[in-house]
Design a protein that fits this description.
11-stranded mixed beta sheet, globular, 87 strands, 47% strand, mainly beta, 1410 residues, 7-stranded antiparallel beta sheet
Length: 1410
């Protein structure tokens, strides 16, 4: 999803919108939607999940990505991972395991193989859900809940859950174990049902539950691979910390799986681990070695068997990990059991035999698993000589290290540190980026035939493919090339330079998102994921890329000035041609489709000599080229256009005395095939200024439109063609024609400015849309103030002249786009379709008008080509479909898309490394090869060097995220609104000689990443707050205010700094433009080093007793500072270049954030929610300034950020993800704030921003509460895991409808596809840690969206029919939004309700999602 970021021009417009939504009723109805999903993968599982897999089908991966449960398709080893579908979840997912169906004893095939495998999902709220992937709407898939249960952990009601940790599944999928962190392991036995029906219920029933109390903290637990002779026996090993004995034990539990009788779980033995062994982290079962496992601790790995635990053998085989890890704090985070290797013993000591080369066995022979089918050829080759099987286990560490443990049952462990690179220049072992908790083995590369042959002496490299997640890395598919040939008789610890190559990036990881800011056409956030430090930059919308830069020198000597117009067409004998009209000459270019070469087309170039071209194009009905110049209209047969003999022009029309052609175009009717040339004509008319005087005359310009029918057959004789003409009172400024259905329409713009829409049949007929660009009579004052162009309609006002017109139309709605020369775009929504030529003129009027500034250059439009089937060129529906989208060009570029609901969604384009701020016009490259339905090619001309470019534009919105390197770990970032520069505060990497962290301020340009200035702060000083403060007066200043905290060194002598700041500083810098270019050198403390462009000049500083945690400016004179547990106001003295303390108020707890509205200040507190303060400046020189508290919250939450929504409405977000709105009492005597709205996000939050992540032009939306004011404002909230959420205000009717929809979907029950996933009792609250904070006044858009994204049409009808109240509300809102009366019978009423609900949810989703 990719586009530009729109920054609100002022806070007042946003506040007005929310004031309109609240009014005097003091209610807020909000809609919460997700703009950007978190890229953080918490857990994942592999299996054959999709139904109807082929015998050698692809693997699937089910992963918990943020607040979604996503299904990915693994396209084979080394080919990548593709997202298939997703569904929202309403609790934090702890673990996912795949249940491989057991084999039917009669058919010897897995049970329900045709329906795909199941997955068990464990959530933080104690719910265990069984889910399955099923087909959805013929070609799609969806994740369906089959059944769910809650973990009891020894409690009958499950009201006091222990801390759950993970799921452990039996290799044969007979038992699921729920493992908690403390005391309990719960065994859930599964009973499988074999059914051939695709509509059968859940094939697994949770038969028996058993709880085992282990008596301590559980480090990890796993079920071991059973021996082939004892498949009915299940062994579970748990590493338990016994607090009483202060030691760690390995517990071995046994259970027998029998078809009859109740299963039992017995504790067989306990094995105490040596005191020298560190705390266990992971238990890794070894499939190749039954009843054995690898024990991974903080500093070593050990080989342990069940027999050792039974016999009490404490002498474990151990290998040290510390020499392969980075320091004492580096721990193993994840593991993956890969393939196996067969290692042969050497027959002669010291001599390596050819048979000692390794061969690969994809899967253990002890288990008949079809997930990884065994290789019979490799197995036969391994039986030639005496050999043993070794198991490969990969381990990932927090430091980014990747380890390979090769384990044999002798026992022996060979540890290898794989030091490769995810990028060509970055070594994984040297980066601070950490691996995540997911490492999945996708498969191994097949062996070469010669290498796999027995007796071959060729070394066999093996490539293992993994899906690896990262806490600070993008989730990717990686390939590890293992070239080692370890000796089975030796134990080694080595490091190999075998590369870890990046195959493909699957999902971008935005976490951790520390600070978030909306800038000019961008969104920025800080993240410490890279060792060098970088700011993440996101663009949302339509991606563009320059495919080719075209520079033509031949024949351009006379026309190197600005290009005025561009036309593209295809000649039958030549191919694609391009004509550019420049200042002095028109240039014709021919394109060779095979070689891609560009050259001047001489035959056409000679025809254009001396002509000022107004239009040129191919007329298919007559196989000719139509050329409209300023004095004539000519037709050239395409068969005569060749290099050898230029065509002889056939004149279709000439100007009359006093006339001149100013515009031209051509159009063909799809129904009759008749073509017309449409001309814009200007005539000078003599007028008498005084009737009595015969000699007094003046010249007046008169304009007209003339349509001339183009004959189908061309000859040298005189033409007999039909003509139609219409005159206008003012000069023409633009002319556009189009075909809709059976009708031809002509849109005309004049200098008045006035819009005219005509229909062409045998004559030009007005459609009743001859409208001046002024407001309708019934427009409200609020709208009149918003659309201020109505006051500037002077006939010769150059900025208000219509530059271009485009009509968007589909079968349901119509909208006219009008572009003015000052960069203004007007959207005129019509009641009534233009295609209905006989429609009453009373209903054909402007229903709504919106105005937006889209650029600084004249607005132009370009069509979106649609590939028409050769046998269906006259299809009227196709013609309408081709006019639903348009490209808007005004320096910047936008895509306008007309939705079936009538809403025009206009989203910006962004360039991949190429700025789009100077584009003058674009033209579709019709017929250009290698284009798809979602990507189109365009020719573009910009103002940089007037070069011609070939652009590719993607019409599917995307999100493009890249990084801006700043050389330090960023913590805070702000965007200066005037210069669009970023000011980032980061922490420099610590070297051995600098024990204290050092902060650095960096000024950089977000467009090219160039660093303008840097400034270092004191050692041990961290930046907590950044704020821009612009002072406008006789001299203007751009101040950068910095709030810091001083962290002194610890007193324990170990080095480092304290976790609490003891004091802080307030520092003021001036961001100044400079022409000086200095050589880069190391910056000194508090001093800026500027390379060029801008510099940070030190102005003033003040020491504070506590850390300065928040800053906000109050007009041009005052600065509000939150320092420790106090809030103070400072006054600026520009002459003395200092700040004077005016007043201060003490708070009970430290402040976290500030926001100012006029003279009121809202303060976020760590434990008391929010406070509302008021600053009263002194009225005279004898008075004094006052700062006093007006209101405070009734209950306290840790508020991470707070802001004003309106004069009486405050929005806050707590650190644990609770978003709430508080109302300010109307009477000052009421101290407590009123709780109005609250909803949970389910993840830790840090910032609230006012604005939009997508520059979408304003459009009215019936469900939005601020639609009356024509403002499209929203609230953005970010979470630490990298998600962006949007909060919209909606009307009471829309809120009530969505609440009824939620109730109806939950009431359908867990067996229905509408039921939410991972909830307790159907509650969709995302509250964390059993939070008791209420949820009211807001709806979760993710759950509402499942109505249109996760339900079939029949299931949607079931939901609506189940709730009469929902159906009544939907029909009521539909009747109020549609002017036509319809008969609401029972079947039609349900259909209308379903369609209206889907339309409402889609519109709200479009307002939230990029």
């Amino acid at each position: 999803i990719c586009a530009s970021i729109f920054v609100m021009s002022g806070f007042a417009s946003f506040a007005t919108a929310w004031e309109a939504s609240t009014g005097s009723t003091r209610k807020v109805r909000a809609y919460l939607g997700q703009t950007l999903n978190s890229g953080l993968i918490k857990c994942a599982a592999l299996g054959k999940l999709r139904p109807d897999h082929s015998s050698g089908g692809e693997l699937d991966m089910l992963a918990a990505v943020g607040s979604l449960l996503c299904l990915f398709r693994v396209d084979g080893p080394g080919m990548g991972v593709t997202n298939v579908c997703s569904t929202p979840v309403y609790s934090n997912i702890l673990d996912i395991v795949c249940l491989h169906a057991p084999v039917n004893s009669q058919t010897q095939t897995p049970i329900n193989e045709h329906r795909g495998e199941l997955c068990a999902v464990l959530s933080e709220n104690g719910v265990v859900a069984l889910v399955r992937v099923e087909r959805f709407n013929a070609k799609g898939y969806r994740i369906r809940l089959l059944s769910e249960t809650r973990a009891f952990m020894g409690l009958e009601d499950g009201s006091c859950l222990r801390m759950l940790r993970k799921l452990v599944v039996d290799p044969l999928s007979r038992v699921i174990c729920l493992v908690s962190w403390i005391d309990y392991i719960e065994f859930v036995y599964l009973d499988w049902i074999d059914s051939k029906s695709t509509r059968a219920p859940c094939p697994v029933t949770l038969d028996v539950r058993l709880n085992v109390e282990v008596g301590g903290a559980i480090c990890d637990a796993a079920i071991l691979t059973p021996a082939k002779a004892e498949l009915q026996r299940m062994l579970l090993v748990a590493a338990v910390v016994d607090g009483q004995r202060q030691s760690v034990f390995l517990h071995l539990y046994e259970s027998w799986i029998r078809p009859f009788g109740s299963p039992l779980v017995a504790l067989l033995a306990k094995l105490p681990l040596p005191f020298s062994m560190t705390t266990p982290l992971h238990i890794v079962p070894l499939p190749e070695h039954p009843e054995c496992f690898l024990l991974v601790t903080e500093s070593e790995v050990a080989f342990v068997s069940a027999l050792q635990i039974l016999s009490g053998d404490v002498y474990l085989y151990r290998q040290n990990l510390t020499q392969l890890l980075s320091g004492d704090c580096d721990l193993v985070k994840a593991f993956s059991v890969a393939g196996t290797a067969v290692v042969s013993h050497s027959q002669t000591a010291g001599i390596e035999s050819p048979q000692s080369r390794r061969t690969i066995v994809p899967r253990s022979p002890l288990l008949d698993s079809w997930l990884y089918p065994p290789s019979s050829e490799a197995r036969r080759s391994s039986e030639v000589v005496a050999s043993q099987v070794v198991q490969k286990v990969y381990l990932t560490a927090q430091s980014g290290a990747l380890l390979l443990a090769t384990v044999s049952s002798r026992p022996s462990i060979v540890l290898t540190k794989v030091s490769g690179a995810l990028q060509s220049t970055e070594d994984v072992s040297q980066t601070r980026a950490s691996w995540g908790n997911v490492l999945l083995f996708l498969g191994a590369e097949d062996l070469a035939t010669e290498a796999a042959r027995p007796g071959s002496t060729t070394s066999v490299p093996v490539s293992d493919y993994f899906f690896a997640s990262g806490d600070s890395l993008d989730h990717s598919v990686i390939r590890v090339t293992d070239t080692l040939t370890p000796d089975a008789n030796a134990d080694t610890t080595a490091e190999t330079k075998a590369p870890t190559q990046l195959v493909c990036r699957v999902l971008a990881n935005q976490s951790p998102m520390i600070d978030f800011m909306l800038g000019s056409n961008m969104a920025y956030w800080t993240s410490g994921r890279n060792p060098g430090g970088a700011i993440h930059r996101a663009q949302f919308g339509h991606a563009t890329c320059v495919e080719e830069l075209i520079e033509i020198t031949d024949g351009m000597t006379e026309g190197r000035a600005v290009t005025f117009q561009l036309w593209h067409f295809t000649l039958p004998l030549v191919g694609p041609c391009l004509v550019l009209q420049r200042a002095q000459v028109a240039v014709a270019i021919a394109i060779d489709e095979e070689t891609g070469e560009w050259q001047v087309y001489q035959a056409l170039q000679q025809m254009l000599v001396g002509r000022c071209v107004l239009f040129i194009g191919v007329v298919e009905s007559s196989d000719s080229v139509l050329c409209v110049s300023s004095d004539c209209v000519e037709i050239w047969p395409t068969t005569e256009l060749s290099e050898n003999s230029p065509a002889k022009p056939l004149k279709l029309a000439s100007v009359q005395p006093g006339e001149v052609f100013t515009h031209g175009t051509a159009v063909t009717s799809l129904q009759s095939g008749r073509s017309w040339a449409i001309l814009g004509i200007e005539t000078l008319v003599d007028e008498r200024t005084e009737p009595s005087s015969l000699g007094s005359h003046s010249k007046r310009r008169q304009s007209s439109i003339r349509a001339i029918a183009i004959p189908d057959k061309l000859d040298l004789g005189e033409f007999e063609h039909a003509t139609a003409e219409m005159q206008f009172a003012h000069e023409l400024s633009c002319l556009r024609s189009l075909t809709l259905g059976d009708n031809i329409y002509v849109a005309v713009g004049t200098y008045e400015p006035r819009l005219h829409v005509l229909r062409l049949d045998t004559e030009l007929v007005s459609m009743g849309l001859d409208l001046p660009l002024s407001l309708p009579d019934d427009t409200s004052k609020a709208s009149r103030k918003d659309i201020d162009w109505a006051e500037s309609t002077a006939p010769n006002h150059a900025s208000q002249v219509i530059n271009d017109i485009y009509i968007l139309c589909n079968t349901e709605a119509c909208s006219i786009l009008v572009g003015l020369r000052d960069g203004t775009l007007l959207q005129l929504a019509l009641d009534g379709l233009l295609a209905a030529g006989t429609m009453d003129e009373e209903r054909r009027h402007i229903a709504n008008v919106t105005r937006d500034i889209v650029g600084k250059t004249p607005v132009r439009f370009a069509s979106v080509p649609v590939d028409t089937p050769a046998d269906n060129k006259s299809d009227a529906n196709y013609a309408v479909a081709g006019n639903q989208r348009a490209v808007i060009v005004a320096g910047s570029m936008f895509i306008a898309d007309l939705k079936p609901s009538g809403q025009v969604v206009i989203t910006a384009c962004f360039g991949d490394g190429q700025p789009l701020d100077r584009v003058r016009f674009v033209l579709p490259a019709i017929g250009k090869a290698d284009t798809s339905d979602t990507t189109k090619l365009y020719y573009a001309v910009d103002d940089t060097n007037d070069a011609l470019r070939l652009l590719s534009i993607g019409f599917v919105p995307q999100c493009h995220i890249d990084e801006l390197a700043i050389g330090c770990e960023p913590r805070r970032v702000i965007c200066d609104p005037e210069t669009n520069l970023l000011v980032a505060a980061g922490v420099l990497a610590q070297s051995p000689g600098t024990p204290f962290p050092t902060s650095c301020l960096t000024v950089l340009d977000p467009c090219d990443g160039r660093i303008h200035a840097e400034c270092r702060l004191r050692p041990g000083e961290l930046v907590h707050a950044l704020e821009t403060w612009h002072i406008h007066g006789s001299r203007s200043y751009r101040y950068i205010c910095v709030g810091t905290g001083m962290y002194p060194p610890t007193s324990d002598g170990r080095g480092g700094t304290s976790t609490r700041a003891k004091s802080g500083r307030l520092i003021i810098y001036n961001l100044k433009a400079t022409k000086r270019k200095s050589q880069p050198k190391a910056p000194t403390t508090d001093q800026s080093i500027a390379s060029s462009g801008y510099e940070l000049k030190y102005v003033w500083e003040s020491e504070r007793e506590g850390p300065v945690s928040a800053l906000a400016h109050l007009n041009d004179k005052y600065l509000v500072v939150a320092a420790g547990s106090s809030c103070l106001v400072l006054k600026l003295d520009v002459v003395q270049r200092r700040l004077i303390e005016c007043c201060e108020i003490a708070l009970r707890f430290p402040a976290t954030s500030l926001h100012v509205r006029e003279s009121d200040i809202v303060v976020g507190s760590q434990r008391e929610g929010v406070h509302v303060l008021r600053f009263t400046p002194a009225t005279n020189s004898d008075g004094y300034d006052e700062l006093h508290m007006l209101h405070s919250a009734r209950y306290g939450v840790y508020t991470a950020d707070v802001c004003y929504l309106s004069g009486d409405l405050v929005l806050g977000v707590s650190s644990d993800g609770y978003v709430y709105a508080m109302g300010i009492p109307s009477h000052l005597g009421e101290f407590a704030l009123d709780y109005i709205m609250g909803i949970h996000l389910g993840s830790e939050c840090t910032r609230i921003r006012l604005g939009s992540p997508v520059r979408r032009l304003r459009r009215p939306e019936q469900a939005l509460a601020w639609s009356a004011g024509n403002s499209d404002s929203r609230v953005l909230i970010n979470t630490v895991d990298g998600a962006l959420w949007t909060l919209l205000g909606i009307t009471d009717d829309a809120f009530e409808l969505l609440c009824q929809l939620e109730t109806a979907m939950v009431d359908m029950g867990p067996t229905h596809a509408a039921y939410p996933l991972l909830t307790v009792g159907g509650s969709i609250s995302r509250a964390r840690r059993n939070s008791k904070l209420p949820v009211a006044g807001a709806v979760d858009g993710a759950f509402s969206a499942t109505f249109i994204k996760g339900l079939t049409e029949a299931e949607q009808y079931q939901v609506v029919r189940s709730s009469p109240e929902l159906q009544r509300l939907a029909l009521q809102l539909f009747a109020s939004s549609d002017s036509q009366s319809k008969c609401h019978t029972e079947p039609d009423g349900v259909q209308i309700a379903v369609e209206y609900i889907a339309q409402l949810i889609h519109g709200l989703g479009q307002a939230c999602v990029c």
